[in-house]
Amino acid sequence: MEMTTCLWFNGRAREAANFYSSIFPNSSVSDNWIAPTDTPGNQQGEEIVVNFKMFGQNFIGLNGGPQFPHSEAISFQIPCADQAEIDKFWDLLTADGGQESQCGWLKDKFGVSWQVTPTEMGAYLGGPDAEGRQRATQAMLAMKKIDLAAMKKAYLGE
After folding, report:
1. pLDDT range class, residue 30, cuts 50, 70, 90
2. N or C: which end of the chain has fewer CB within 10 A?
3. Would you tell me the crossing angle of helices 83-94 and 148-156 to the nearest 10 degrees?
4. Terminal-to-terminal C-alpha distance of the chain
């Protein structure tokens, strides 16, 4: 048994599924469900659901209408290997109407929230040096996109 995450979109489920599957590894768009009759949110013949995968995980893009917009209450964390991956995903996800936030968080053009975070960041925020952790945390709080080298310098006190 596998869990599937449903993401509600205002008519842009196919666009979102295609976008995500084009930038994330182990991602693809599979099948869909077309309304066989009028439904509360769709007219007969319109695409209601798009099934897709991101990072090998199952998702449903539901064209449900404008009543339930995305919020930061749910976000997806991208475990980046290095600064190059941080920069790549940050640039792709903030393009065309995405919005930067703080501490590695952003919203993409569909309003979905992401945390673009390097796995190495944990060594600075949770490392053995208590003062270093405090400096790294203060450095991170001043950032929008994570600058891994700056976090390391802060942790080391350089």
Report:
1. very high
2. N
3. 130
4. 49
Considering the entire predicted model, what is its pTM?
0.92
User: Average pLDDT of 104-129?
Assistant: 97
- Among residues 41, 112, 129, 40, the alpha carbon closest in space to that of 76 is found at 112
DSSP string, 99-113: EE-STTEEE-TTS-E
Nearest partner of 63 among 36, 42, 44, 43, judged by Cα: 42
Write phi, then psi, for 125 (nearest 5 degrees). -80, -20
pLDDT average, residue stretch 25-49 = 90
Say how far apart CA 156 and CA 158 lie, in whole Å: 6
The alpha carbon of residue 123 and the mean position of all alpha carbons in its chain are separated, in whole angstroms, by 22
Calpha distance 141→124 (Å, rounded): 13
Question: What does the chain come to in residues?
Answer: 158
Q: Judging by DSSP bridges, how do beta strands 57-63 and 28-34 pair with one another?
A: unpaired
